[in-house]
Structure to design on (407 residues):
């Protein structure tokens, strides 16, 4: 009887039918130059398969980029891609831009400018560039080593060449800064006027980078802090408390004047906030304490709606958000005031969507979802005999059909 009830419950809680499972791994594999090199890395501890957890993603044409932060030692490469042309669900990650850029320097070796030490999320912009937020920090949960300072690393996706490496300024950083996300604001007609917005979840700030000025500034606001009542999580059978501040950022449609609304939320929070990009892009205004009221409260999403990443589909005017405590993904159409009624859960699966870590809407209006059971990886241990990491894709219009998001 109980079993029957549980089955019935899990069926109605499973809303993954609209999702197409594109990748599913027990452990992540990499495209090593040779078996010999792989063996050597395994023997030396430079590669510990169980320590390679995929976390962030974004798509450019036939490449699906994935990040593998150096939480623990033995990460083969922190940035790579999966070829979307191959129909192999357990495809190997191909390091990007190459193996060398992803290899930790030995001894006094000075890494080349295109190196990636550890990255959480990346962003493909509308000018065929890949923006990587390299934290420079290896072995985060073990013996943390700051190998290079946090930097924005930008590649030309057409040539795979480095366009720029910008080291964040000392004034952009604080002692417990943690940069795990990056969004890019650019009009494809004016590629050299790009801005990047980088949330600091550890010290509750936002760093703005202007490509044209090659300058950055740090923005402060109370809305960047976590809610002390919303830091309790239960995910994949693990209970934990987090204090992560501003995290998910997503840009709304461009207005007539060229500016956009940046929607944002702290991770340990159920509220959504916003600010117009004209506030952030002007260094004077952005750093002026009198700008306090230029930041808006959009609303409260309701219980258990804590979210990591978010992204926006402009055609449907819908914001998508991961739902960490609900093993799923939700949507909200900003035409409606945000509350628990205007938020719709569009995907949920108590196994396959444990810790939806990153989502992205691609130019063809597919929503990509990466789930990776991260709390089990951090606080317990993943079971390598089971599927632990999954990447799904779904059509935005299919997801929001018959929900409050499609108005
Ligand atoms: C899929 O990729 C994995 C990892 O690269 C490889 O071991 C396996 O042989 C591939 N499967 C097929 C059917 O090509
Ligand atoms: C950007 O500024 C940094 C100093 O913050 C400098 O080292 C770098 O050369 C500049 N890059 C460009 C492209 O101007
Ligand atoms: C930034 O805002 C200030 C104050 O409103 C204004 O005086 C200044 O011209 C603006 N700067 C730019 C580059 O738009």
């Amino acid at each position: 009887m109980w079993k029957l009830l549980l089955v019935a419950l899990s069926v109605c809680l499973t809303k993954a039918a609209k999702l197409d499972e594109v990748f599913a791994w027990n452990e992540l594999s990499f495209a090593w130059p040779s078996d010999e090199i792989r063996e050597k890395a395994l023997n030396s501890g430079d590669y510990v398969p169980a320590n390679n957890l995929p976390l962030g993603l974004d798509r450019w044409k036939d490449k699906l980029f994935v990040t593998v932060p150096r939480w623990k030692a033995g990460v083969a490469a922190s940035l790579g891609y999966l070829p979307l042309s191959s129909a192999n669900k357990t495809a190997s990650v191909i390091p990007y831009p190459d193996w060398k850029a992803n290899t930790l320097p030995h001894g006094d070796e000075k890494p080349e400018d295109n190196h990636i030490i550890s990255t959480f999320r990346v962003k493909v912009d509308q000018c065929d560039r890949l923006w990587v937020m390299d934290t420079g920090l290896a072995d985060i949960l073990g013996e943390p080593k700051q190998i290079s300072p946090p930097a924005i690393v930008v590649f030309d996706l057409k040539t795979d060449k480095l366009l720029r490496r910008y080291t964040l300024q000392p004034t952009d950083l604080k002692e417990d800064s943690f940069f795990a996300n990056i969004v890019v604001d650019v009009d494809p007609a004016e590629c050299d006027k790009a801005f990047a917005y980088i949330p600091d979840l550890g010290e509750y700030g936002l760093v703005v980078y202007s490509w044209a000025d090659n300058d950055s500034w740090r923005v402060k606001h109370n809305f960047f802090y976590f809610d002390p009542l919303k830091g309790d999580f239960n995910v994949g059978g693990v209970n934990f408390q987090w204090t992560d501040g501003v995290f998910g950022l997503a840009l709304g449609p461009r207005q007539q004047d060229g500016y956009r609304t940046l929607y944002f939320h702290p991770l340990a929070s159920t509220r959504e906030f916003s600010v117009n990009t004209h506030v952030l892009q002007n260094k004077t205004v952005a750093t002026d304490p009198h700008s306090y009221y230029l930041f808006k409260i959009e609303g409260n999403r309701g219980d258990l709606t804590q979210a990591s990443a978010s992204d926006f589909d402009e055609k449907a005017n819908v914001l998508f958000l991961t739902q960490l405590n609900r093993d799923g993904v939700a949507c909200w159409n900003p035409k409606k005031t945000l509350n628990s009624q205007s938020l719709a859960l569009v995907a949920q699966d108590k196994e396959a969507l444990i810790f939806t870590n990153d989502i992205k809407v691609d130019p063809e209006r597919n929503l990509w979802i990466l789930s990776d059971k991260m709390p089990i990886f951090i606080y317990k241990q993943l079971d390598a005999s089971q599927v632990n990491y999954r990447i799904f894709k779904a059509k935005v219009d299919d997801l929001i059909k018959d929900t409050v998001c499609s108005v």
User: Anything to note?
Assistant: The helical segments are 2-13, 35-44, 277-281, 283-286, 374-379, 396-400. The first helix runs from residue 2 to 13. Residues 164, 166, 214 surround 2-acetamido-2-deoxy-beta-D-glucopyranose (ligand 2) (CB under 6 Å).
